[in-house]
Amino acid sequence: MFFLGIYQRRPLICRMRTVVGHKQMKYDLEKLRSKVTALAATKTVVKDSEGYYQPFTYNNGSGSAVLRFLPPLDDEEFPFVQVYNHAFQAQSSKWFIDLCPTTLTQPCPVCEANSALWNGPDKDLASLRKRKMYYISNVLVVRDPKQPENEGKVFLYKYGAKIMGKLMDAITPPFPGADPIDPFDAEEGANVRLRIVSKGGFPDYDMSTFDAPSPIDPDTVDSVLNQRRSLVAIIDPSQFKTYAELKRKFDQILGAATAA
C-alpha cells in the first residue's frame, strides 16, 4: 500500500491524466485526496535550512509572498513528501532535534517513550516531545517583496496542515460549481498568495488564496523545472539515524536532565 511519506516509482502508464470534473489532471488525485485525508496533522516547528524557502515576516509576525507549487520529477510519484520529526528542549537545556523514523513506518524510541507518558500524569511532557509533521514540495518564488533576490528561483518549501488544506481545497473545491485545479501543474496550475499573520504566537495562513489558473512563463518554464530537487532523496533511509542511534541520543539527553 502506498504511504505518502515514501515515494514509489510508477510505470509510465500511470502518468496519464486523471479526470476531475471536466478537467484532466496529471496525478491520481483520488488517491492523493484519500491519503491526505487519512493523515494526522500537527503544526510544524521545524526551522528551514539551506535550500529551503523561508518567507520574510515582520516583528508582528505578518508577511507575504507569491509562490508556485511545482510538479514532481518525472520518476517521482507525488509533488510532496510527508515527514515527521522531533524537536524539543530537555530540562538540561539541550535540544533533541532529529527525523522521526515513523516517516518510514519504522519504530521510534522517542515515540515509544511518549506512549507511556500519555497514560500518566506527564501529558504536557508527552506533548512537548511528540513528533511534528510537515510536508515538503518544490516551489517557484514568483514574488517576494522583502527578498526580491529570491524571485524566479526554485526552493524546497516546508509547510504544515493549513497550507496542505489550501492545496486540497484547490483540488477538491468545497463549494458547489467551483472548478478544481491541479495546483502543482506547470501549465494549468495557479500561483498561491501566501499571507501570514500571527495567532497565538504561531504563523497562521488562513488568508492565503490561489490566483486564477495560469501557465508558468513559457520562456522560463524549462529553466524553472530544471531547478527542482528530488523529494525522494529527502526521505531516503540514509537520512535517518538507526533506532539504536536515536535511543542512545535520547537517553543521553534524559540522563543529563536527570543528573541536573
Give keywords.
single chain; 260 residues; alpha+beta; Replication Fork Single-Stranded DNA Binding Protein; eight-stranded antiparallel beta sheet; two-stranded antiparallel sheet; 6 helices; disordered N terminus
Describe the protein's architecture and organization.
It is a single chain. By secondary structure, this protein is an alpha+beta fold. It has a single domain (21-259), classed as Replication Fork Single-Stranded Dna Binding Protein (Replication Fork Single-Stranded DNA Binding Protein). Helix content is 23%, strand content 22%. The strands form 2 sheets. Strands 3, 4, 5, 6, 7, 8, 9 and 10 form an 8-stranded antiparallel sheet that branches. A hairpin with a 2-residue loop joins β1 (18-20) and β2 (23-25). α2 runs antiparallel to α3 (123-129). The radius of gyration is 20 Å and the shape is globular.
What is the structure about, briefly put?
With 260 residues, the chain is of the alpha+beta class. The protein has one domain: Alpha-Beta Complex (Replication Fork Single-Stranded DNA Binding Protein), CATH 3.90.198. The protein has helices at 29-38, 109-118, 123-129, 161-171, 221-226, 243-259; strands at 18-20, 23-25, 63-69, 81-89, 95-99, 132-143, 154-159, 192-199, 202-204, 209-210.
